[in-house]
Request: fold
Amino acid sequence: MAKTLTEQQQIFLEVLFNEAGGDVVVAKRLANYSPTYPTSQVIKTLQDEIIEATKAFLARSGPKAAIKLVGVLDNPTELGIKEVLAASKDILDRIGVSKTEKVDITSNGIFVLPAKRGDD
Reply:
């Protein structure tokens, strides 16, 4: 069952990855929480929703990471390209787009077990 969020909580989640730039204190202020309301309480209450919003944000960044990754082919000497490649690869890995490895397992169909000991 999905948790029902207050309007203030919804605003907090909406601004967290936009106007607030990921800063929970700024997002709390933009959502009109009282300055005395503990930020830790906001996070504790919305922990699952923040995690889901983070996953969605990374998924939205996936196409940009893929374009940067492929863009290296056009400009392989660009300054800072190693960092761009690492960041792009990390984002793609985290959203589930990663290189696949094929494992070829061949067998002749015979499997030899060790002799059974008498004390078992």
Q: What stands out?
A: Residues 1-45 form one domain. The mean pLDDT is 88. The CA atoms of residues 69 and 85 lie 6 Å apart. The radius of gyration is 24 Å.
